[in-house]
Amino acid sequence: MIKSDYHIHTSLCGHADGEPSEYAEQALKMGLTEIGFSDHAPLVALNDPSVSMQLDQLPRYHKMIADVIQAYKGKLNIKIGIEADFFPGYEDKTREILNAYPYDYVLGSVHYMEKWGFDDPIQRQIWDEKDVNEVYREYYQLLRASAQSKLFDIIAHVDLVKKFGHRPSQNLTDEVIKTASVFKDTGVAIEINTSGLRKPAKEIYPALWTLEIYAKAGVPIVFGSDSHSPDQVGKDFDKAAALAIKAGYKEYLIFEKRQIAIKEKLQ
Ligand code: ZN
Ligand code: FE
Ligand code: FE
Ligand code: ZN
C-alpha cells in the first residue's frame, strides 16, 4: 500500500480549489501517512496567472504550508515541494526561484514546447497542426534535458504528452530507453501520477510498457495524484501500486530536504 502523495496543488496556482487543511483531511481519510504540496512554481519563460503562482505569492505559499504542517503535527506528515516547469535556456532563473526557499523535493515538469502548453485545454487545438510522432520525440528530448539540468529531484508525469489521447504511430521504445538511461545517470526519480486516469488518455502516467523500461534501468519512483481539489488526494493509488509492482518495482522513495530519506516497501 502507498502511504504518500507528493503531487498536491493549492488555490494559489489559479486553477485548483480547497484549503490545505481540506487536502490533509482527505489524506487521513484515504489512509495516507504523508502528503507533499507541490504547487506550480512561477513560470520563467512566460506569464500566465491561470497556470501558476506568481513570484510575489511564494511567501504566502510557504506560510500556508508551514501553518498546515504545524496544525497536523503528529497526525500527518506534511512536506513542502513545488512543481517547476522546464524551459531550456532559463535554467539560471529557475534555479534562482528554487533556491529562494527550502523544499523537501522539487518536481520537474515538461508542460511546454517553446511557448506551446501542449497539455493546456485552451491550447489543445494546436495539436491539429502538429505531427504527433514529432511532438512525442521532442517531448522525450525535453524530459532528458530536464533531468540533465539538475534542477529537479523528481520528473513528474513522464508521458504527459498523451493527455488528450494523441498516440504516436511510430514505435518510440528507443526514445524511452534513452530517457531511462539519462534518468538513471542523473539520479532523478520519476513520478507515477494517477491524474491521467481522469483525462482523455484514461491511463496512469506513465504507461506500463514505459514503466517497465524505467524499472529495468533502476530509476526510482514516487507517487502523486496531481490533486487540484481535495477529493483527488490519494485517488487510484491502488491501481498505481499494482502498476508499479507489475513493472517490477519493490519500493518507492520518501524525500526530505531534497534528499532521499527512506525507501518504503511497496505492499
Ligand atoms: Zn495544475
Ligand atoms: Fe504538471
Ligand atoms: Fe501538478
Ligand atoms: Zn502536474
Can you say what the CATH homologous superfamily is? Metal-dependent hydrolases
* Gap from first CA to last CA: 5 Å
Question: What ligand species are in this complex?
Answer: zinc ion, fe (iii) ion
Compute the number of structural domains.
Answer: 1
Q: Write down the Rg.
A: 17 Å
What percent strand? Answer: 15-25%
- Number of alpha- plus pi-helical segments: 7
Fraction of helical residues:
25-40%
The name of the CATH architecture is Alpha-Beta Barrel
Widest β-sheet, arrangement of strands: 1-2-3-4-7-8-9
Low-confidence stretches: none
Spell out the key features of this protein.
single chain; 267 residues; TIM Barrel; seven-stranded parallel sheet; two-stranded antiparallel ribbon; 7 helices; 11 strands; globular; binds fe (iii) ion
Topology:
Layout: E1 4-8, H1 20-29, E2 34-40, H2 58-71, E3 77-85, H3 91-99, E4 105-109, E5 112-113, E6 116-117, H4 132-148, E7 154-155, H5 173-186, E8 189-193, H6 208-217, E9 221-224, H7 237-247, E10 251-256, E11 259-265
Parallel strand pairs: 1-2, 2-3, 3-4, 4-7, 7-8, 8-9
Antiparallel strand pairs: 5-6, 10-11
Helix pairs in contact: 4-5, 5-6, 6-7
